[in-house]
Design a protein that fits this description.
The structure holds 2 protein chains of 2 kinds. Chain A is 23% helix and 36% strand. Chain A contains 8 helices and 20 strands. A 6-stranded mixed beta sheet of chain A has the order 6-7-8-3-9-10, sandwiched between helices. Chain A is elongated. The model of chain A has no long low-confidence stretch (mean pLDDT 89). Chain B has 12 helices and no strands. In chain B, helix 6 runs antiparallel to helix 9. Classes of the chains: A alpha+beta, B mainly alpha. At the A-B interface, strand 6 and helix 4 of A face helix 7 and helix 8 of B.
Chain lengths: 359, 274
């Protein structure tokens, strides 16, 4: 059953259209992450779901009910804001009580929910404090508790970790994952951080310029990007791209780019003809150092070696083409050395150079 | 002497000067209100004398001074309350509505405050006379509010601008309507602004002289006019004027002290970011 459905949802500010007809189905209990660079329309989309922005066109359903014109207060949602948005003049307990007030619950039920939420998120010792007396991580947990006590149909998170330092971010990320596992409530989560998206999501929705570029599981968007944008946006360091031309060789079609070439894989043979421009994508982790003269390897020059502990990033060059390889730290070469590199054939991605779409 | 100590002494001297400038008139009022009339203008001035409460006794027995205090209180509190309600709602709207013409509207509201009062005294007199409001506290409440509302709007707009909209959005998502959000979230966070606006409105209304003189007669007369009425062409009753002035000072001081605990800023600290 679908928990949230967007059908051709459009957002316009006057003449300017910022979200162009988005279609998205979010299953009940799913953890869906809207991922994209700044200005891609992900927060606007989330705010439309929350009811904080009007919907210019299209239809939005929450729990099988069209809510286009329903006020935020009647949408049975809870939202965690980027800057927490805790009520500064209320204590932690009052913040939660205030969120429950519209539901007109019995006092016992209010206490029970607050006690449970504070136990789960470790807020018991902080209930009498005001937001100003809390650390960033604690505030974030209060914001989550406040959303949780309402037992909403959908949780909305708007870049909830962006104000936390790196260590705390990892910690709170884990708490969010645990919370979702425990409550099983549908989550719609906005972030520009691909690590958050990859670690938390059941389904990632990658957006750019108000369009959805790809929807899929973290594995799908990583392993089978639909276009160049997704290919380079997901993965760190990002995918290496090579401009290639299809050429006819004796044994079949080749993709060539001076001074190296790769054979066109058989599923693509029917789609490509000589002369066509193709962009070859290879993730740094799909490039390894090969033995000299190994079939299918190329010579490359090592420019810079970035040592990261377990692994190392090699900045390599073939002719004028620069690219990055990710290798085990123990196998790293020294700078200015010539090495043989091998592209894992299973890790090659082919895109049409003009449209940017995967072939 | 260290530089630090010198700085401190200089600071105390400056404070003393300021205190002398501000407190001398009040000292003169208090002393003169307790001085027998015969010693009022004696030369050299008398500093040691037997204090008398005669002027205060006269003040409340020869005139209905307590009723005039009541009039002033009704007018000042009425105008303050009305201005805070209307002004803060208007300011909230101006702060939140994003539109080009809203700036023109807010400047127009401010321009009302720049109006020279004397220019509108006669029109007000004619209007109130024709609708039967002359010599009533309501007339003064209306007039004072036309000056207090613009002030409140401009002051409160700044405070509302400071309240992050995310807080209101959070309240809305939490299930609260617009009015509950304003009442429970936005307004408490602007309490310092309301206190400042209340103090300004009250003091302006309490001290106002021109409109009170022109628009009231015997029934709705306020204290400023009452004190002045001891100044006649026959004689100036300095003792009673001073006693009246001292009594007039008291409510203002009480009001400001009451509001003082709200005048603490920094309530919004910690609401957003960390």
């Amino acid at each position: 059953m679908s928990s949230v459905t967007l059908r051709n949802v459009v957002k316009r500010y006057g003449q300017l259209e910022v979200v162009h007809g988005i279609n998205l189905e979010i299953d009940e209990g799913a953890f869906v992450v809207l991922l994209g660079p700044s200005g891609c329309g992900k927060t606007t989309t989330l705010r439309m779901v929350a009811g904080l922005e009007s919907i210019s066109d299209g239809q939005l359903e929450i729990a099988s009910r069209v809510v286009n014109d329903v006020a935020p207060k009647d949408r049975q949602i809870a939202m965690v804001f980027q800057n927490y948005a805790l009520y500064p003049h209320m204590t932690v307990r009052q913040n939660m009580e205030f969120a429950l007030k519209p539901q007109k619950l019995a006092d016992g039920e209010v206490d029970r929910r607050i006690t449970e939420a504070s136990r789960i998120l470790g807020l018991e010792p902080l209930l009498a404090r005001k937001p100003a007396q809390l650390s960033g991580g604690q505030r974030q947990r209060v914001a989550m508790a406040r959303a949780m006590v309402r037992t909403p149909k959908v949780f909305l998170f708007d870049e909830p970790l962006s104000n936390l330092d790196a260590k705390l971010r990892t910690q709170v990320r884990l708490e969010i994952a645990k919370l979702h596992k425990r409550l099983g409530t549908t989550v719609l989560y906005v972030t520009h951080d691909q690590i958050e998206a990859m670690t938390l999501a059941d389904k990632i929705v990658i957006m750019k310029d108000g369009h959805i570029e790809q929807v899929g599981s973290p594995e799908e968007v990583f392993a089978s990007p639909k276009n160049l944008f997704v290919a380079t946006f997901i993965g760190s360091p990002s995918m290496n791209l090579f401009q290639m031309t299809v050429e006819q060789a004796e044994l079949g079609l080749l993709l060539t780019s001076q001074p190296f070439s790769v054979p066109v894989p058989s599923p693509l043979l029917s789609k490509l003809s000589p002369g066509r421009q193709v962009t070859l994508g290879v993730r740094p982790s799909d490039i390894r150092i090969a033995a000299k003269g190994e079939p299918g390897s190329f010579e490359a020059r090592v420019d810079v070696v970035e040592y990261l502990g377990i692994e190392a990033l090699l900045n390599l060059r073939i002719g004028s083409q620069e690219f990055i390889a990710q290798v085990a730290a123990a196998e790293r070469p020294v700078p200015d050395q010539d090495v043989s590199v091998f592209f894992n054939p299973a890790g090659l991605h082919f895109f049409d150079s003009q449209s940017g779409q995967a072939l | 002497m260290t530089a630090n100590a010198r700085e401190k002494i200089l600071l105390y001297i400056l404070i003393a000067i300021v205190l002398i400038v501000f407190m001398t008139p009040i000292y003169l009022i208090v002393v003169s209100s307790l001085k027998p009339s015969a010693l009022m203008f004696s030369r050299p001035p008398t500093f040691i004398f037997t204090p008398t409460l005669q002027h205060y006794y006269d003040l409340f027995t020869m005139r209905p001074f307590h009723l005039q205090i009541l009039n002033s209180l009704i007018v000042a509190l009425g105008s303050t309350a009305f201005s805070l309600v209307v002004g803060s709602l208007a300011a909230y709207a101006i702060s939140r509505i994003k539109s080009r013409w809203i700036n023109d509207v807010s400047f127009w509201i401010l321009s009302m405050r720049m109006f020279p009062p004397i220019a509108v005294v006669v029109p007000y007199y004619i209007i109130f006379k024709s609708i039967g409001l002359l010599d009533t506290p309501l007339a003064l409440i209306i007039v004072y509010s036309t000056f207090n509302i613009p002030l409140t709007v401009w002051l409160m707009k700044g405070f509302f601008d400071e309240v992050p909209e995310a807080l209101e959005e959070a309240a809305q998502v939490d299930g609260h309507g617009v009015i509950a959000t304003f009442w429970y979230v936005t307004l408490p966070l602007t309490a310092p602004g309301l206190a400042v606006a209340a103090v300004f409105c009250f003091i302006f209304s309490w001290n106002e002289f021109l409109f009170a003189l022109m628009l009231t007669g015997s029934k709705a007369q306020t204290v400023t006019i009452a004190v002045m009425s001891f100044w006649s062409s026959d004689a100036v009753q300095w003792g009673r004027i001073m006693a009246g002035s001292f009594v007039v000072l008291i409510p203002g001081v009480i009001f400001v002290l009451t509001c003082q605990r709200w005048l603490v800023k920094g309530l919004t600290m910690g609401s957003v970011k960390g």
